[in-house]
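quick q for whoever's on today - can somebody do inverse folding on this one?? i tried earlier but teh output was garbage lol. tokens:
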């Protein structure tokens, strides 16, 4: 669990540097929301990593049953660290080469995630999956504290290059627990079929999981990428935002992830997803009111952002616990990667639309739209819950 957690933190460091740290730096330098949205193209490897997931799974878990999870992470991890070092040396002013370094780092991180998730599904017993996803979501928040919080503070005090090189060193340290821990995965079936996307799409569990992701993620993530620029435009400094992300959001996010691990085991995934979606809608509408009335007090902004963070963490522990149970042990990395790619694709669509709406109509309209989409997702949750029960009974 510690090894998996370290990898999840490392992956989130890279993502947060790109999706939280860089947009705030660019906004402070005068970039438009559309220019900031351009950097989000680096999410494309996360959106389409399912295309090379079968090849990664065939290398990581070959037919002879000998796992290569650690070898896969070591090889691709070296590429990832090198890309982050290049990211640091290029600097935020050269957009084209910076985008290339970001894309390479994102590609390597997404590839590691295929191996990491496949290993997690194989290793964790069903009763422990909620805790595994708590480690995943909690690790994401800790990574966000580093990539979207500490990174910004270091930029303010050390400059872009040195701050980026510190992050590259942190990635190496975070990967060591996984690389040095014995493999605890179950032995693979010798007669299992060859991992493929075709086989994944043929499974009803996978098709249902993709539908669930599309509904829930669009309801949750619509305006998340604009919160950093919104706080900048509200007068907060990079250090202030970094402190909020690094201390408040992280502490409550990790608490929410751990609480999610317990609550999902007790109440079930759909109960938690429904409740947290309702709370997230309230947070988005509160942000809309704050933006409309131009409230800049940190005593108003801070509780709203923190409440959104803890609900986000709880909800995604529940979502990924449900999805992990629908991945086949014969090709865990492929099935779970499909779910995560769907998450990334829906997120990218939402972020691009949010940037367009935010640039044209302002933050208030964007946050209202987030609340409306959340309400639509909330209305569909009872139907999805009933369908989930039908799929589970059919599988049994």
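ok took a stab at it. sequence:
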């Amino acid at each position: 669990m510690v090894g998996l957690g370290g990898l999840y933190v490392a992956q989130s460091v890279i993502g947060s540097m790109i999706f939280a740290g860089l947009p705030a730096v660019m906004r402070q330098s005068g970039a438009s929301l559309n220019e900031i949205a351009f950097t989000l193209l680096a999410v494309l490897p996360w959106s389409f990593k399912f295309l090379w997931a079968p090849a990664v799974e065939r290398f990581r878990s070959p037919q002879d049953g000998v796992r290569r999870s650690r070898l896969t992470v070591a090889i691709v991890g070296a590429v990832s660290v090198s890309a982050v070092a290049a990211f640091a040396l290029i600097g935020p002013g050269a957009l084209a080469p910076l985008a290339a370094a970001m894309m390479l780092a994102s590609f390597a991180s997404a590839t590691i995630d295929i191996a990491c998730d496949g290993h997690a599904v194989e290793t964790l017993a069903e009763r422990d999956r909620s805790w595994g996803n708590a480690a995943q979501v909690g690790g994401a928040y800790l990574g966000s504290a580093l990539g979207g919080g500490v990174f910004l503070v270091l930029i303010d005090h050390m400059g872009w290059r040195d701050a980026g090189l510190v992050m590259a060193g942190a990635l190496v340290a975070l990967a060591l627990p996984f690389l040095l821990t014995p493999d605890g995965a179950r032995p693979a079936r010798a007669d299992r079929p060859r991992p493929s996307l075709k086989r994944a799409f043929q499974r009803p569990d996978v098709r249902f999981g993709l539908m669930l992701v599309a509904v829930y993620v669009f309801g949750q993530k619509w305006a998340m990428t604009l919160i950093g620029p919104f706080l900048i435009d509200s007068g907060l400094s990079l250090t202030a935002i970094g402190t909020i992300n690094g201390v408040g959001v992280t502490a409550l996010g990790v608490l929410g992830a751990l609480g999610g691990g317990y609550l999902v085991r007790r109440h079930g995934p759909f109960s938690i997803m429904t409740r947290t979606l309702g709370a997230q809608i309230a947070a988005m509408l509160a942000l809309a009111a704050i933006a409309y009335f131009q409230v800049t007090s940190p005593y108003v902004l801070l509780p709203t952002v923190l409440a959104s963070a803890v609900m986000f963490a709880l909800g995604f522990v529940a979502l990924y616990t449900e999805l992990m149970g629908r991945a086949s042990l014969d090709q865990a990395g492929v099935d779970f990667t499909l779910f995560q790619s769907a998450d990334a694709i829906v997120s990218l669509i939402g972020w691009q639309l949010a940037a367009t709406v935010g640039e044209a109509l302002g933050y208030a309209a964007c946050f209202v739209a987030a609340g409306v989409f959340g309400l639509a997702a909330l209305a569909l949750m009872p139907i999805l819950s009933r369908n989930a029960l039908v799929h589970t009974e059919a599988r049994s």
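fwiw The two ends are 28 Å apart (CA to CA). also The CA atoms of residues 12 and 89 lie 20 Å apart. so keep that in mind when u check it
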